[in-house]
Amino acid sequence: MVDKIKVSLEDVLKNTAWMENTTRQAALEKLKAMSLLNTLPEQGYDDESMEDEFKDMIMSTKNYYKNKKTIDREELKSNLEKLRQPTERSDSAGDTSVMNAKYYKDRNQIGTFYVILYFC
């Protein structure tokens, strides 16, 4: 899957008329240097793990704003817990329970997890 994404991006870069050649070359070099970050979900997807993960998130069937505030609060709490912890390039790209594949420009990486790659 990631190889297909990189091939597609390379094709777009090579055929983009508005881009200057020096910019195009720099973009192609960056694309070739792009690494892949594969992660496994930290917790399983069984009912017990999901219940434990989201036990503090009480959602409403009628109030989108309240749901959004609840999600934002839980995300902030999670991010604050990670704030002072050391990170490495090989660390997980994010919460794999809500992502499938994403480009991280600060690391020049495509993050995905094994479950997706297995079925591609």
TrEMBL record:
Residues 78-98 are annotated as: Disordered. InterPro entries: Peptidase_M13. Residues 78-92 have a biased composition (Basic and acidic residues). GO terms for biological process: proteolysis. GO terms for molecular function: metalloendopeptidase activity. SUPFAM superfamilies: Metalloproteases ('zincins'), catalytic domain. This is Endothelin-converting enzyme 1.
